[in-house]
């Protein structure tokens, strides 16, 4: 079959409208809000702070802990059960691995940095939005970073490669979803997952288009951080 037109009318390589802001939570060490389409991620960062109990401390480096949470009435499908789940734990670990390559936690031995991401509204791409928001919040907290990770999903819907899948595309019966996180300045891929089947050539095309879309997200991240500094927040 041929996928002639996207469900929401976008071009196949077009990203949904984006907005971003940092410094949104006064009591956090760093915070950010990132919205792409109807998916909204709110992130708060606390730390570096002493890790307790002490036997968990690492004298050689700080530790990053990530907590991902979709709120109960956040989006499509069934109501999300409150509290931790197997899926939230898996995405928390994925986020941690995507963010760590950009952080120099050796500068903060014996400490922990806690990242909390809540999604009050979702329309696919939640882990990518969460990673993007978390990177901005970590930068807002003043942590030493070598790059600003960003993430986007590309994939296949029938015979077409599309960028930034929405809910209809993500749940389409003949498709493949490929979340990708990158370090924009080096091009390093820090997250690559795949849900569905796709040919080798189409996979290369999807990753390439995700990297190009990631550069657009990076510009939105940078602009939000610059605006915060300009306002003195």
Kindly describe this structure.
It is a single chain. The chain is globular, with a radius of gyration of 18 Å. 42% of the residues are buried. The protein is of the alpha+beta class and 233 residues long. The chain has four helices and ten strands. The model has no long low-confidence stretch (mean pLDDT 92). The strands form two sheets. A five-stranded mixed beta sheet has the order 1-2-3-5-4.
Summarize the structure.
This protein is α+β, with helices and mostly antiparallel strands. It has helices spanning 86-99, 126-140, 167-170, 200-231; strands at 18-22, 30-36, 39-50, 63-70, 111-121, 150-157, 160-163, 175-183, 188-192, 195-196. The protein starts with 17 loop residues before the first strand and ends with a helix.
CATH superfamily: GHMP Kinase, N-terminal domain
Q: Widest sheet: strand order? A: 1-2-3-5-4
Structural class: alpha+beta
Residue share in β-strands: 25-35%
> How is the CATH topology named?
Ribosomal Protein S5, domain 2
- CATH C-level class is Alpha Beta
Tally of helical segments: 4
Tell me the radius of gyration: 18 Å
Average pLDDT metric: 92
